[in-house]
Write a structure and sequence with these properties.
heterodimer; A: mainly beta; 6-stranded mixed β-sheet; 11 strands; B: 0% helix
Chain lengths: 112, 115
């Protein structure tokens, strides 16, 4: 059972376009992470957000943690073919636990 | 290498066979996780170790699945009497921290196909 629902499930866009990926849950998370996974590889961490309302920027990527710590978004500006991959959010419920729950995933394809 | 190493990368098993998947975490990492990932989906939690102690095995699908980490480093995920629904990529991840903000370092996964 996935507690974290991501939308959209698939996204195919042209190079240079902007996009937003959403990660939603009815549960409150102590922290939330975003990972990117390429075919045949394991997920690689992009960012960790901890505080409700927190916004973090990583070059063309902007991550936001919802005020209530139940949702998050990832915005990519001027997407490039190198951004292609499976984007995964992962959250931990409770402050004293280790159990990372992953979202359903958003598969992004950026066309040159 | 310095990363998480998993073997075998690919495994084809006939239904009913037993398989063993190995994970070599990053040296010094306390936490070790096993996840199961179906094609195009997010990883599903299987089990968690803190050093040699298996603190959570709530995600193991059935009693055919067994994991161990006897010396607190290398871990093995064993699947007995494999079924077709066991076909998936099995990912191992390790983390230096036991806090919820710790980064998970993943291996490349072991792709299991059960015929």
């Amino acid at each position: 059972t996935q507690l974290l629902e991501q939308s959209p499930q698939f996204l195919s866009i042209q190079e240079g376009e902007n996009l937003t990926v959403y990660c939603n849950s009815s549960s409150v998370f102590s922290s939330l992470q975003w990972y990117r996974q390429e075919p045949g590889e394991g997920p690689v961490l992009l960012v960790t957000v901890v505080t409700g309302g927190e916004v973090k920027k990583l070059k063309r990527l902007t991550f936001q943690f919802g005020d209530a710590r139940k949702d998050s978004s990832l915005h990519i500006t001027a997407a490039q073919p190198g951004d292609t991959g499976l984007y995964l959010c992962a959250g931990v419920v409770g402050a004293r636990t280790y159990k990372y729950i992953f979202g359903t995933g958003t598969r992004l394809k950026v066309l040159a | 290498g310095a990363g998480v190493s998993q073997s075998p990368r690919y495994k084809v098993a006939k239904r009913g066979q037993d398989v063993a998947l190995r994970c070599d975490p990053i040296s010094g990492h306390v936490s070790l996780f096993w996840y199961q990932q179906a094609l195009g989906q997010g990883p599903e939690f299987l089990t968690y170790f803190q050093n040699e102690a298996q603190l959570d095995k709530s995600g193991l699908p059935s009693d055919r699945f067994f994991a161990e980490r006897p010396e607190g480093s290398v871990s093995t995920l064993k699947i007995q009497r494999t079924q077709q629904e066991d076909s998936a990529v099995y990912l191992c991840a390790s983390s230096f921290l036991i806090l919820h903000t710790g980064e998970l370092f993943f291996g490349e996964g072991s792709r299991l196909t059960v015929l």
